[in-house]
């Protein structure tokens, strides 16, 4: 990790530190365009072709009913998944909001109601390890929101199957089916639909650059599909106070670094923190990690920043807008109100980011790449849409009509004005 002193950096230098590596989606979009087009026109046949080409697998089925698949999990794994589901469900159900009704003036009533997104597609990355945690984080709020159709998509394992843990979660959330495919072809299948796979209205889930590019392309296509949020490599920013345990801090940095070589970890230290012990602990823990080489690559483009005061550290964090923010201070909660831009925040020495990744209850599908400045993480509302209603009485129309007529005339929209005046004239003539 490169080391900097905050007080020695000007605004331009800080902006450079906050700037994530540029992702050239134009080149990627050119690569995936034939995939998206072929899935649209050829359906299941294209899915089978690309799964064979990219994964070297040709599964017996590409879309399965999770209830028809036997799963074999140890009691320990089953209990862990059940606990995570319970906590995530409890936290997300509490986010349910009631319908809103307001009388904005006498005779004018406005209301707002929430409805679930009817069909949602949940992309669950595969690759080197199954990710049932992502199935939990996306599937549980989808079910809690009442989405009638939930479809999962995940790459096949080396045997052409979906991992039992992912199937188990799919069963628990009442998924309609699981598409055994990954990459851009899976996103295209969810967006366009195929002979086997139902088209969805909104696609959720993280993935590699091809998955991200496919989501971005298809939300601007004739598929008429929306996505959860833009996505980039995973990241964490840790603020370490003088009493922070270097072993804890090293573990937190590495827990993000092992995600991928393009992950970024940032450490902001306060006076008194033992950087020498941190470096020692990083080296020792790295040697014990199965994904140590991946973590090393991530650390090479990560950095640490020495701040003089907690206020400066938090100001930099808000400027950086991290996906995950860990405040390793004994009095971390007292600084909560100062956090303006972060995907999810972990307070105090006993709250590793891993808790939120798996089972605390908050969602781990979060804005990366600085998008925490304007996006929220996935929540119950991500699986809902709202509809507004309004109703005017005769008296309400008489009261509000002149205002609308004036504004419509101001904008030169005569038909708008007449839609009001014709009613007002009718009421007046009947009086």
Overview of this structure, please?
There is one protein chain. The chain contains 15 helices and 15 strands. It has 431 residues and is of the alpha/beta class. It has 3 domains: 2-21 and 232-361, Rossmann fold; 25-230, Nitrogenase molybdenum iron protein domain (Rossmann fold, 3-Layer(aba) Sandwich); 394-430, no CATH class. Strands 1-12-11-10-13-14 form a 6-stranded parallel β-sheet, with helices on both faces. A 6-stranded mixed β-sheet has the order 2-7-6-5-8-9, sandwiched between helices. α2 (25-42) crosses α8 (209-218). The chain starts with a strand and ends with a helix.
Any chance you could write out the topology, listing elements then pairs?
Elements: E1 2-5, H1 11-18, H2 25-42, H3 44-55, E2 63-64, H4 75-93, E3 100-105, E4 108-116, E5 119-123, H5 132-145, E6 149-154, H6 164-172, E7 177-180, H7 183-192, E8 202-204, H8 209-218, E9 226-227, E10 235-240, H9 246-257, E11 264-269, H10 275-287, H11 292-300, E12 303-306, H12 310-320, E13 324-328, E14 344-347, H13 353-358, E15 384-392, H14 394-410, H15 414-430
Parallel strand pairs: 1-12, 5-6, 5-8, 6-7, 8-9, 10-11, 10-13, 11-12, 13-14
Antiparallel strand pairs: 2-7, 3-4, 4-15
- Overall CATH class of the largest domain: Alpha Beta
The quaternary organization reads as single chain
Average pLDDT level: 95
- Main-sheet strand order equals 1-12-11-10-13-14
Counted by DSSP, the helix tally is: 15
CATH level 3 topology of the largest domain: Rossmann fold
Which stretches of 5+ consecutive residues score pLDDT under 50?
none
Specify the overall morphology. Answer: globular
Task: Provide the CATH superfamily of the largest domain.
Answer: Nitrogenase molybdenum iron protein domain
Number of strands: 15
What profile does the largest beta sheet have?
A: 6 strands, parallel
Terminal-residue CA separation: 81 Å
Overall SS class: alpha/beta
What is the rounded Rg?
Answer: 26 Å
């Amino acid at each position: 990790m490169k080391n900097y002193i905050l007080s020695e950096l000007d605004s331009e230098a800080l902006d450079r530190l906050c700037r994530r590596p540029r992702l050239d989606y134009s080149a990627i979009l050119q690569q995936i365009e034939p995939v998206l087009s072929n899935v649209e026109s050829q359906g299941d046949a294209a899915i089978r072709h690309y799964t064979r080409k990219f994964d070297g697998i040709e599964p017996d089925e590409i879309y399965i009913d999770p209830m028809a698949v036997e799963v074999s999990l140890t009691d320990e794994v089953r209990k862990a998944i059940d606990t995570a589901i319970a906590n995530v469900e409890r936290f997300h159900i509490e986010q349910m909001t009631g319908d809103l009704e307001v009388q904005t003036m006498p005779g004018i009533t406005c209301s707002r109601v929430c409805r679930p997104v009817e069909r949602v597609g949940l992309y669950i990355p595969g690759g080197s390890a199954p990710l049932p945690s992502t199935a939990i984080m996306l599937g549980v709020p989808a079910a809690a929101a009442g989405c009638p159709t939930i479809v999962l998509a995940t790459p096949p394992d080396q045997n052409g199957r979906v991992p039992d843990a992912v199937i188990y979660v799919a069963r628990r959330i009442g998924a309609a089916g699981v598409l055994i495919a990954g990459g851009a072809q899976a996103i295209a299948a969810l967006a366009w639909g195929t002979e086997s796979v139902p088209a969805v209205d909104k696609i959720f889930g993280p993935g590699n650059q091809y998955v991200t590019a496919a989501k971005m392309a298809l939300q601007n296509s004739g598929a008429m599909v929306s996505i959860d949020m833009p996505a980039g490599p995973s990241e964490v920013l840790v603020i370490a106070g003088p009493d922070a345990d270097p072993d804890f801090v090293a573990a937190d940095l590495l827990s993000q670094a092992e995600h991928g070589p393009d992950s970024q970890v940032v450490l902001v230290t306060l006076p008194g923190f033992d950087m020498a012990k941190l470096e020692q602990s990083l080296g020792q823990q790295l040697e014990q990690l199965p994904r140590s080489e991946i973590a090393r690559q991530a650390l090479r483009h990560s950095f640490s920043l020495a701040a003089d005061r907690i206020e400066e550290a938090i100001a930099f964090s808000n400027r950086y807008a991290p996906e995950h923010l860990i405040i390793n201070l004994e009095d971390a909660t007292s600084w909560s109100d100062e956090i303006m831009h972060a995907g999810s925040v972990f307070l105090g020495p006993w709250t590793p980011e891993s808790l939120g990744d798996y089972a605390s209850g908050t969602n781990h599908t979060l804005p990366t790449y600085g998008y925490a400045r304007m996006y929220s993480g996935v929540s119950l509302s991500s699986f809902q849409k709202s509809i507004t209603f309004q109703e005017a009485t005769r008296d309400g129309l008489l009261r509000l009509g002149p205002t609308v007529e004036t504004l419509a005339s101001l904008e030169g929209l005569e038909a708008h004005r007449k839609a009001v005046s014709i009613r007002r004239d009718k009421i007046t003539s009947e009086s």
